[in-house]
Design goal:
The protein is an alpha+beta fold and 147 residues long. The protein is built from four helices and six strands. Strands 1, 2, 3, 4, 5 and 6 form a six-stranded antiparallel beta sheet that branches. 26% of the residues are buried.
């Protein structure tokens, strides 16, 4: 039995929070290796200290998004009910620093049925928030769910 929220279970305006996860140097190093993105902003402490407004290395935006998908999955909200992840609009208004603990605040902002009566599409506002209540990811996800 799926424990996720089906299309009919999502309520427009309802906000749900996930548990948190701390982003580590190891996460960034492993993501750089997996993605091939060794940009100095993420991997070179001296470069980041001298040449960035943050004064230190930061996590990749794509890593932040990847962790967000994991937090959503781990929450159980989408377990066994997703037909497909249809798209995302991603913005990173603030950096994720090594040691930040992030969680999601997920709000259903739109729903629409599909031609198939067994499926529906939900648009979610996904805020990635750090331990200081700073939004570090402002995302909109479009997901097809079973009804």
């Amino acid at each position: 039995m799926a424990r996720g929220k089906r299309y009919n279970d999502w309520i427009i305006g309802e906000t749900l929070k996930t548990s948190g996860r701390t982003v580590t140097e190891s996460d960034v190093t492993r993501f750089a290796g997996l993605s091939g993105d060794y940009n100095q902003l993420h991997t070179d402490a001296e470069f980041a200290k001298a040449n960035t407004p943050y004064g230190e290395r930061i996590a990749h935006g794509a890593l932040t998004f990847s962790i967000a998908t994991g937090l959503m999955d781990h929450s159980g909200m989408i377990e066994g009910v997703v037909v497909g992840f249809l798209g995302a609009n991603l913005k990173w208004p603030a950096p994720v620093l090594f040691g930040d603990t992030i969680h999601l605040e997920v709000t259903a902002i739109d729903k629409k049925p599909t031609k198939n009566p067994k499926r529906g599409i939900v648009t979610l506002s996904v805020k990635v928030v750090n331990q200081n209540d700073v939004v570090v990811g402002d995302e909109e996800w479009t997901i097809m769910f079973v009804v």
